[in-house]
């Protein structure tokens, strides 16, 4: 059954399908939070959105990890997957599809896709020799390796020498077509630094890559030669396609691609850029399918300058962080403090300071003290000020009117930190404005009309800020909206486009005296700074 409203634009965003060699860490959470924010933003715009996440469960890395804990790989995966589902729930991630590469319908999709590529003459048998990093599930060039034959990404792991018969994918055949594609679609790889990386890599000349393994049985058999097992990445990338199937439809490529293909945005970390920006488009070209619109490679979360990861064991526990500080706090911090695309270090003191300054002070206090003043000076009602009557050069109105477009632009190019900074700057301007206007003394002087204009414009600004930040801090935004008298829950965003569409809420002057204000309550409790600071 096709449930999609064809009158609307569709938007599909994916996270990587995470390896299940361990429970998720903050690096996995980072991409997933960003994808959820994009999905929420696209929904506010009124688009039909599909957010895909899931798990990558085959291959040597998973097989070995399962074996070392004395479990069958499938059982091992089944035990780890719930930790991803739970973390996404805790972080308020509202995905639409969870794609597991061990799902039965996935094998049918992989088989059909393989056949297309095979029929196109792009798969052949050859001898593979090279250094393999099991943690990356990738062959490495000797020149990339660190001293002691260690992987540059998993710096404690030595690569392993392989010399075996494999099936190869004819990547070299797509050299020119890929180059032309990157030229004609300059936005395909983002940010620009990552695009350059890919162009440099492709310029050096593409080599065919092996897509099967021997001596490994945890994976799908190669359809034309079951003694071989399909390379985990060949199967994993196709997990995005399987995810598009309606739950009750026959697993065929035609069904999978009918409604949502091509994918609009693959969000990934920079370490898996080559797979998404080179191998994946070439595989799709070979299968004669349209290519995705955009691949965005973000940076790494680091600790003391090293990539946080399961292999190095220097991760931050996202469960603990969310439980101690709330999901909105975690979502806000990582998106506001790190430019998406760059690496960013985590420091708990900084984390606390940012949340206290932005959410507890600038935004939270502003709402609270303004609502309390409205209670005192306006009998608890939204001042009946016609926003149209406020002059356009009013400092908050002037800034507020331009903000919606500015923030929309920032979300569109995934500059989440800029979206936050733009909103925050209006919030800070409002704090300054209220201090300068001093409504308490205007009230004493009997200037009721002026008091009302000041309080109205500050409340309206807080509303606009809450709206524009709602993809990032849905709980806090709902709380603010509710205190301002709306019965809108951004938390469940599946129908947010109907209850609070962007074109109606992202402008300044929406608050009206019809609104029945709620009881003022602090939205974000100040966090105690750490003792060891
Ligand atoms: N299974 C593959 C992806 C297949 S997609 C068809 C994989 N999985 S992973 O679990 O190792 O990594 C998933 C994502 O998490 C990658 O995008 C990776 O960049 C990201 N991160 C892992 N550690 C990270 C940080 N320390 N910081 C930010 N993101 C990082 O690769």
TrEMBL record:
Keywords from the UniProt entry: Aminoacyl-tRNA synthetase, ATP-binding, Cytoplasm, Ligase, Nucleotide-binding, Protein biosynthesis
EC number: 6.1.1.10
GO MF: ATP binding; methionine-tRNA ligase activity
Motif 'HIGH' region per UniProt: ranges: 18-28
Pfam family, one: tRNA-synt_1g
Subunit structure of this chain's protein: Monomer.
Name of the molecule in the record: Methionine--tRNA ligase
Gene transcribed to yield this protein: metG
